[in-house]
Here is the input.
Amino acid sequence: MIRSLLAVLMIAVCVAAAMGAASGSHWERVPARDHALANPLARQSDAIAAGALVYRDHCQQCHKANAEGDGHKHPTLHSQNIRNASDGDLEWFLRQGDLRHGMPSWSSLPAAQRWQVIAYLRSIQ
Amino acid sequence: MISKLLTRIFIFSCWQAVLHSVLISAVGRAQEKPYFVTYSQDLEEPGNLEIETKTALGRPEGGNRYGATAMELEYGTRAWWTSELYLDGQATARDSTVFSGWRLENRVRPLMGEHLFNPVFYVEYENTSGADKTILEVVGHDGQDDLAAPNGELRREHQHEAELKLILSSNVRDWNISENFISEKNLGHSPWEFGYAVGVAHPLRSAGGRRECTFCAEKLIAGVEGYGGLGDTMALTMRDTSHYLAPLIGWQLPKGVRMSFSPGFGLTGTSLSRVYRIGLAYEFDQVGRWFHSASGGAE
Here is the structure.
């Protein structure tokens, strides 16, 4: 019995490691349909203010209040990489996360709040 | 003597969780759904620690009213891996208050991306007694008879169990839909037992407001969950199994506190007719860094 349980656990860990090793760069993997999406709340002051609150609640603990990150595992959000990404790229990335590198998936946030965060991120670039 | 001590520790821990929730002013937000039995794909954010109490209030037919609390310490080990420790206890009217055991569980997301169905593997070891009445899962032929006997008698039953779950969960148009397939085995004896849990939840308002608020729709999430037993390897049948349907409401309060409430209704004769559940959670941000900083590590 214990051997069976250990076998199941080992398989789970191996699958997780294999799937983790298979992923590549963020924006190259964004499907064309997602890449082309535009932020329906772009440049709206209400959305930017609401996005700042969502950022404070969910993002600030890692990326810091000034969005500069910690210089180690949590990168700055004032970057060329963010400025070059389309709104659709950022929404896709928030939804997918990057579990292997510690970024959670935010698919559980309502879509409107993801777009509000993106409006906020654009406003601070 | 030891049981009295453990009971006191359990009650003290619960109070400590409540006090932390109310007094600490740091900002931290849980993102989890208000399910009590069903698990979704949501894992704890890496480095965060969530302390949650889940209390079940019920009255089995022919037994006394009881309140059972599970205190849950949930830590985000990695973005794809969450570990949890549960400490369970209960108080039964005209009987006693007892510590009823502990559980250690791990949840792992094997797929790093987001899919229509997101699988999570769940492995748990339980060291509880028959006096555990938290009903965090219903499997096999579990029924209200199991909850009706006096605590002194129930505590003699040692539940040394392993539990495996396959969690499938989807986030579609702000709806969360989760399905859990449960199998449980008492490592000392008894056959494999099976159960299920399904849940659906949706925030009352999707967009966030431009001002901080407490009593507003985007802070509330409503849903419903259903759960029950599916028999065991000796009798894989729905006969004499318990099933529940439970509406849910979750409320995200300021300062990272989350409350949830659910009245559950038994659907079969072997189920409790009603079980009320109350949850209170608080999330501590980046607990891992506390230790890192304390040991002289660079943050």
